[in-house]
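Z., the sequence and structure:
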Amino acid sequence: MDTRRLRSFLELSRHGSMRAVADVLGTTTSTVSQQIAVLARETGVPLLEPDGRRVRLTPAGRRLAEHAVTILAAVEAARADLDPHAEPAGTVRVAGFATAVRRSVLPAAAALAAHHPRVELRISEYEPPEAFAALLAGDIDLALTYDYELAPAGTDPAIQARPLWTASWGLAVPAADAPRVRGDGTVAVFEAFRDHGWIVNSRDGTDEDVVRRLAAMAGFEPRLTHRADSLELVEDLIATGPAPAVGLLPATWAARSGVTVLPLAGPEVRQRAFACTRRGRETWAPLALVLGLLAR
C-alpha cells in the first residue's frame, strides 16, 4: 500500500470529508478521492459509506485506519533512524577480543551513555574467527579483530576493515629462565626456549602462526603444550604450570612475580587491531558514530 494513500485515508477518518483532507494535505479533493478509491481496490473491501453529505468508515475501514496509524508511525521511525542528519538511535551489536573491548569499546560505551543515550551497545567477547563468522551471518554489526604483522589475516571481500591500533608483544617466560638468552633479537630469544613447552591461543590460530614462523627461523619446531585464550591464564601457566612453558604476551604486560616478558625485536612482533563491518553498512548513523568513537 502506498503510504500517501494511507495518510489521506487516516486524515479522512479524522475529518470525515474529502475537502477537509485536501485542505490538511495541501492537495485537491479530486486527488484525495482518487487515492481513497485506489486504496479500496487494493484492499478489496468497501472502506467508506455515505453519512449525509459526509462519509464514514465501514468496520473494515476502521480496522484499516488503526493499521494506518501503526504503519505510518513505523515509516516515520524508519526515516528518522536512517536520516544521516538525525540524532543517532538504535542498538549496535559488537563482538571482539577482550583487549579491544577493554581498550576501545568500554570508553566508547561511556561516551555514548554521556552524550548519545539513544545508542545502545550489546557486547560479546569473540575471537577473530568467531567475530568474522557472526558478522557475515548478520548476527552482529561490528567485529573487533586482530592479526600480527608477521602473519597478516585475509578478510572476506564483503568486509571492510579499519585499523584501530597496534601493540608490541614479547615472550613471557619463567623469570628464573630469562638469563639463558644469548645474543640479541627475536630469533635469539626463541632459540633460548626451544626446549620449553609453548602456549598458543585456543580459539584462534594467528599467534600460533607467529610462533611457528619465528621458531622456524630459530631452527626448531615448537612443542605446543597448552592452549588458552585468556592472557591471565597464559601467565598462570608460565608461573605455576606443571612444566616449563612460554607464550606471547603484550610487551607492556605487568607481569606477576615469577614471570618475565622479554622484548622481541628484529623481527618485532606487533599485533594489529581492526574494526570490521559489512561493506555499505558503515553509513548507518549509530554504527558510524561508534566507529568514530573507536577511532579516537
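The chain has ten helices and eleven strands. The mean pLDDT is 92.

Let me know what you think.
H.
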